[in-house]
Amino acid sequence: MKQMLRMAALACFFPLTLAAQQTTVASPANDYAIAVAWQQHSGEFRALSFQAFNFARLSLVNRLTSADPAKKNCVIVDIDETVLDNSPFQGHEIQKGISYNLKDWGEWTSLGAADTIPGALSFLKFAADKQVETFYISNRTAAEHAGTLKNLQRLGFPNADEAHLLLNTATSDKEPRRQIVLKDYNILLLCGDNLSDFSNAFYREGKDTREQVDAAWQEFGNHFIVLPNPMYGDWEKILYKGSGLTEEERSAQRVQGLKGYEIK
Fold it and tell me: Does pTM surpass 0.85?
């Protein structure tokens, strides 16, 4: 009798467990879970971030020796996944079963609660000690201005003020904003997690930019400092065919875009 009751209980339990597992696996947002987990928990993410900013220190010192003395010196940094870590936002979205919601993003940035990317703050303080200013060029919008400044100032980032924060007010192309800075400053370094943070040559919506990267290979680690970001970026756009895709369709196309091999 006990055995029969045990079997009946298991019969009821397993379908519920299987349904829960299937629900989790079927959620397209879960495609991003391993990337967010890697950024939040791996020593490798921290090591790569420190490595990037260690290169930045060496390059900054080197580039100062040949800077135009008639201009002031600066570095340009992106904000998201370059100096501020937004992985808690990404984790929040995945736990909701979605990959991104604009309203949620606005709520997150208004909190000013993001932590620093490892090595970012110490590098920019190092630059400030050498009279090198920092400009923050980000595609956050004007609506996020107050929360962004609050976040940078709370963490003690240098030059976190109105004059040095250039947000997206007209176009996601950052080149016009870089040109504004270039009028009065030597731009010694550019730091970012997305190729369009460095040059207009990489500003290609939905286009494979690997050829442009190969052509500019000497700039990386020298003039361009790249931070690791497996969670999102322009690179993902080349995987998708069509507009107005659902999360499920995007998920399917990500799998279809993977390289594999065949055994002949």
Answer: yes
